[in-house]
Amino acid sequence: MSLTITGLLFAASHIPTTFGDWVNQLGAALILSTVYYKTRRVEASILIHAFMNLFVTTIYWWIMYR
User: Fold this and answer.
1) Do 28 and 5 touch, CB atoms closer than 8 A?
2) According to the model, what pLDDT value does residue 65 have?
3) Alpha-carbon distance 34 to 66, whole Å?
4) 39-58 pLDDT, tens per residue?
């Protein structure tokens, strides 16, 4: 239950506008929550979130400026 609530809050805080955005954000929440559950270290989830953001930004820039 707590995973569902935190997942929905995580997704909502990223302001999804389409169903696909919701699915994407809920998937990220599931991954980050699982990492926290396995490691019991929020730093691991923060680091993975940062790498996910870097990956998405790099792809965006590559598409925009190639």
Assistant:
1) no
2) 95
3) 35
4) 999 999 999 999 999 999 99
